[in-house]
Design brief:
By secondary structure, the protein is of the alpha+beta class. It contains six helices and twelve strands. InterPro entries: Acyl-CoA_hotdog (IPR042171), Acyl_CoA_thio (IPR003703), HotDog_dom_sf (IPR029069), TesB_ACOT8-like_N (IPR049449), TesB_C (IPR025652).
Length: 290
């Protein structure tokens, strides 16, 4: 694996401290606070270590911003191990405080009724420029004090379908889509379903919350804006690989009371493999101080 993929895998491989307690490292991926996708992926991985079943759903709340300079402790409660489902509760702890909590349900794959909506018709990933190339076209708009962090490579490769300049946002439809995958194939020695699911959870937080900003002509970089994830849900429908292109199609249905509600679907090879939803805080500081 190349260095970026190796770093992502290491980020989502936790150290076992004792039974049901794990420690994860933190990385500065989006600024002063821990990236929500990191906590989602690590919490899911911690829960996965306590069962041999794949996850089928995750429901999480972000309680406090995480400290990028400190590790995170994950405590897993084994709530239930039934014939069909296993239930786990996970708490993420930093500096003695719970910063995140999640419920995760696991179930083996089984045959049954089968239906899905149609995949949206977008250009293939190979026909699109990747995010790194697109950033080069807008480098003149990037302030010097954030240029290094903005231009650095992400741990994953992203190819936006309708890219826009976050430094010059314009009102747009409340929808967004991109293709996403790891930069390199997952090595056989770590190629586990739980890792692929954890990386998909990591993926799922990219741009989802900010979809609700688009009709307002705002971006996550708008100086007057306060943004934070409040909750996050994810459903795993079918097996997938994170080192193959996944189409992540997102839409927002409402923004009100300083919150926006967003939904996403992940597609691979024509199959709907994951669904997501997230409510986020989108507060204008000028309105807050009036």
């Amino acid at each position: 694996m190349n260095a970026l993929t190796q770093e992502l895998v290491e980020l989502l491989c936790l150290e076992k401290l004792e039974e049901n307690i794990y420690r994860g490292i933190s990385r500065n991926l989006v600024g002063k606070r821990v990236f929500g996708g990191q906590v989602l992926g690590q919490a899911l991985r911690a829960a996965s270590y306590t069962t041999d079943r794949p996850a089928h759903s995750l429901h999480a709340y972000f309680l406090f911003g995480g400290d990028v300079n400190a590790p995170i402790i994950y405590e897993v409660d084994r709530l239930r191990d039934g014939k069909s489902f296993s239930s786990r509760q996970v708490r993420a702890i930093q500096h003695g405080r719970t910063i995140f909590t999640a419920m995760v349900s696991f179930a083996p794959l089984e045959d049954g009724l089968n239906y899905q909506i149609s995949e949206p018709n977008y250009p293939a990933a190979e026909a699109l420029k990747n995010e790194a190339e697109l950033k080069q076209h807008i480098v003149e708009f990037v302030p010097e004090n954030v240029r290094a962090s903005f231009m650095r490579d992400r741990l994953v490769e992203i190819r936006p379908i309708n890219p826009s300049n976050p430094f010059l946002p314009q009102p747009e439809a409340p929808a967004y889509a991109h293709y996403i995958r790891t930069h390199d194939s997952i090595s056989p020695e770590v190629d586990e379903v739980s890792l692929h699911q954890a990386i998909a959870a990591f993926y799922s937080d990219f741009t989802l919350m900010t979809t609700a900003l688009r009709p307002h002509g705002l971006s996550y970089l708008s100086p007057s804006l306060q943004c934070a994830s409040i909750d996050h849900a994810m459903y795993f429908h079918k097996p997938f690989r994170v080192d193959d292109w996944m189409l992540y199609d997102m839409e927002a249905t409402i923004s009100t009371s300083s919150r926006g509600l967003n939904f996403g679907r992940m597609w691979q090879n024509g199959e709907l493999v994951c669904s997501t939803s997230q409510e986020g805080l989108i507060r204008l500081r000028e309105i807050e101080t009036q």
